[in-house]
Design brief:
The complex is a heterodimer. By secondary structure, chain A is mostly beta strands. Helix content of chain A is 0%, strand content 53%. In chain B, strand 7 (62-66) and strand 8 (70-75) form a beta hairpin. The chains are: A mainly beta, B mainly beta.
Chain lengths: 117, 110
């Protein structure tokens, strides 16, 4: 149980284009999903928290207009990197917390490697 | 602000050589401390949640313990397949987010 998928696993795009990454909870409903980025040999940095049906909460220093997050259902959240630039190249990982439980565990997806050329 | 520090940064072990990883934390109110395993190029895999000082949890060769200031992840008689980065994270009572430590990269040589 508690499986989270991400699509795509890898994406290469040209500078100035937009890229959408999907995060799905496969066997549970997630009221809250989280988006992280991870640079090589570094730990995870939280970008934003999204709750189903409401606007995402972004961490300090994360541009809301650049990283668009939509959490349209209890099993799907999307991250769109708009007007991507090489410095946006990174490993993006989502996580989900199960709805209606007393547990606070976050279950992570396999990650999406974004390369902007 | 929550702070999480993991040590050592890297650990090289011989197969069968037991060791411990440390996670020191500062948080206004602890809701939970989480341990994850991360393999290269993959997302973190959930291992344990600890909620209160004195709590211990075990899974195969791994055992996690918690005090009011730190947590330890003990690896007993490790095997090469235990090689990974182990991440510690805390969640405070006031919110949803996890604050991660820098991780400990463990390499177990056969």
């Amino acid at each position: 149980g508690a499986v989270v998928s991400q699509h795509p696993s890898r994406v290469i795009c040209k500078s100035g284009t937009s890229v959408k990454i999907e995060c799905r909870s496969l066997d549970f409903q997630a009221t809250t999903m989280f988006w992280y980025r991870q640079f090589p040999k570094q730990s995870l940095m939280l970008m934003a928290t999204s709750n189903e049906g409401s606007k995402a909460t972004y961490e300090q220093g994360v541009e809301k207009d650049k990283f668009l997050i939509n959490h349209a259902s209890l099993t799907l959240s999307t991250l769109t990197v708009t007007s991507a630039h090489p410095e946006d190249s990174s490993f993006y990982i989502c996580s989900a917390r199960a709805a209606g439980t007393a547990n606070y565990e976050q279950y992570f997806g396999p990650g999406t490697r974004l390369t902007v050329t | 602000e929550d702070q999480v520090t993991q040590s050592p940064e890297a650990l090289r072990l011989q197969e069968g050589e037991s060791s411990s990883l440390n996670c020191s934390y500062t948080v206004s109110g602890l809701r939970g401390l989480f341990w994850y395993r991360q393999d290269p190029g993959k997302g973190p895999e959930f291992l344990f949640t600890l909620y209160s000082a004195g709590e211990e949890k075990e899974k195969e060769r791994l055992k996690a313990t918690l005090t009011k200031k730190e947590s330890f992840l003990h690896i007993t008689a490790p095997k090469p397949e235990d090689s990974a980065t182990y991440l510690c994270a805390v969640q405070e009572t006031a919110g949803n987010k996890l604050t991660f430590g820098g991780g400990t990269r463990v390499l177990v040589k056969p």
